Automatic annotation (TrEMBL):
Residues 19-75 are annotated as: Disordered. It comes from Micromonospora jinlongensis. It comes from the Bacteria. Decomposes hydrogen peroxide into water and oxygen; serves to protect cells from the toxic effects of hydrogen peroxide. The lineage of its organism: Bacteria, Bacillati, Actinomycetota, Actinomycetes, Micromonosporales. The active site is at H131, N203. There is a cross-link at H395-Y418 (3'-histidyl-3-tyrosine (His-Tyr)). This is Catalase. Keywords: Heme, Hydrogen peroxide, Iron, Metal-binding, Oxidoreductase, Peroxidase.
Amino acid sequence: MDSSKPAEAVKNVVKSASEKIADALSPDVPGAPGSGTPTVEEPTTPHDPLPPKPEQGAPQTRTPTGAETGAPTIANGQQGAYLTTSQGARLRDTDHSLKAGPRGPILMQDHHFREKITHFDHERIPERVVHARGAGAHGVFTAYGNAEAVTRAGFLKKGRETEVFVRFSTVLGSRGSADTVRDTRGFATKFYTDEGTFDLVANNMPVFFIQDAIKFPDIIHAAKPHPDREIPQAQSAHDTFWDFVSLHTEAQHHALWNMSDRGIPRSYRTMEGFGVHTFRLVNEAGETVLVKFHWKPKLGVHSLTWEEAQMLNGIDPDFHRRDLYDAIEAGAYPEWELGIQVFPDTPEETFAGIDLLDPTKIVPEELAEVQPIGKLVLNRTPTNFFAETEQVAFHLGHLPPGIDVTNDPLLQGRLFSYVDTQLTRLGGPNFSQIPINRPHAAVNDMLRDGFHQHAVHAGVAPYRPNSLDGGNPFPAGDAENAFVDVPVTVTQAPKVRANPASFDDHYSQVRLFWLSMSPVEKEHIIRAYTFELGKCYEQAIKERQLQCLANIDPVLCEQVATGLGLPAPQPTVPLADVTPSPALSQVGREWPADGRTVGIVVDPDGDLDGVAEVRQAVFDAGMVPLLIAPHGGMVGGMPVQRTFATGRSVEFDAVLLAGAPAPAPDAIPARDDKAGRPGPAAVDPRVLLLVEECWRHAKAIGAWGAGVTVLEQAGVAGTPGIVAAGSGAEALTAVQQLMAAHRVWERFPASVA
Ligand code: HDE
């Protein structure tokens, strides 16, 4: 061990960072846990901490008050080659506590023991009361410039690039819950603009359950697990949720979105995002417009099937975060366009008769086009999940000059809640000084002291007016780009606990959403309601929700009632005469397949040259090929990523069969529940199961050579979306075309119109 040459030692233990980057550029599947390649033997040579993986990013090294330091981001991480105390004193041993003899009690004086255990005892912080489970990534937002006419916000000026951190989340489950539950998803973006941070705290659904923030504890208490047994985790298929939403009918619109395919996204990369509320923009001239924010994914909006979602909860509960990080690592950077719907800022605050302050309503895109104003690219994964994804703190009041709020009563309540919640979750009022939350703009706030104060404020006069600090800091005016509180006129009115009458319509837009769905999407919604209400215990709750469904649409109500074995009630309100909005449907268009996963079933005795060509072609198409073989290790010089024992259909967007592998030694057809049909088979039964599941989930399946016989044995040959090709290249081309539509729904004619 040569401790005088740590850099040299690094080389001996791990590949250098540049070699690793070269590796990452060569076709390789994502998922390597670290930046070095470990040796079998335990390393013995001290060296500096390994560099982050090439795809990892970290918050800039700003000071707590927003100044650039110029230090590399790894300066925030561990330093040096030797183990130290938190004060930097080098330690001789961390495996044995200091005892009164080898068999004696631990000594009170063991400061290292106490420091290590005490810190460990306090590693957890309260999880978010909602949106506890999330995954974050760094990226960059580039403005197109066309919003300059309506807002003075500098980061929306043409060509401006702004660093961002995005956190996606589920709402209901705890931090350890599964990713693919049926739920709304959070889509929160922190724009580190040079005029102050802007947080766009959005969801993947454009409406919310309630119209007034004071109801938030009610809906969340109803949707969270029952207080006595704490079940079910991370889902709405239970009595308290349906009890609340069937009584509080303004929740019906959001409930329908949750029951639609939007509730089970294929990926964070294939979700839309919505600011929900109406915001107010103000331009250089002081003119205002009202807007709704939209995120449009480059890959289109796609979902899992319900069976896939359920299977994934067991097979890969981290499916969405893995997909996000693997896509970034593979270079298939997730992309969205930010768009705005723009409405005139009239005293009524309505558009086409729709109340813009009612968060249970949308404005159909056919009535107000979504105008793209910039592009978001996520291109770096976090270096440390806790420091970044867990400690990031969003707040609707983080607004730059040019963006202001409206009187939406939900938005107004959120303006209070987000700071309040961070005080407990992040342990005090200085959460803005945590590295991931540090602004990229100069901070001069006169806020002082408090737990975990990282800044070292100079000056003696943190008050205004003062003369002792020469009057600093000074209020800014328009010329200095001060934040604009738009002087909106508030109509003289009595103080009341009441909603405007326009908030009373709870059904017309729910019907609009239902009627905008394609037949296959309607079928999924019917099944989702039937499942969720079927999981409720109380008959009264099912009947009450059926009444709500009758007020949305008779077909929806009848079909769900049939599944529940209950009579379908008649509507109690006139069915609204609405114009469907085709933009709400997810099917019927074509999208790129970047970063999608293609499983390739390999027979070690089959056409391995063909497999190598197809594997490369999948890489070249910007997708990730995973070889599925009877055993691990290598096949034909290629690494095997999944075996028949470890792989499962739900991981793949499409499957290619490059052979008809015979049953492997570990296949036990008669009793292995993964083995599929019993009895002697020419093909490994788990391959047949894979094909059957992919077929049921409407995925494209291609085969060539001996692989074609697998299609026949699985009984799927000749059905829509099944490709029997003459070569691997031909099979891949056909499968790629099918993947553009996401699923082969023609395989399953819908039972409703
Ligand atoms: Fe939130 N919400 N929310 N919410 N919300 C939180 O803030 C709250 C609402 C949303 O990844 C909490 O830091 C109230 C709508 C996202 O860190 C909390 C109301 C929308 C996230 C809170 C709402 C959202 C949160 C919990 C009713 C979509 C995750 C932890 C007025 C537009 C952010 C935290 C992240 C998180 C309160 C309604 C989106 C408690 C009171 C509507 C994406 O402050």
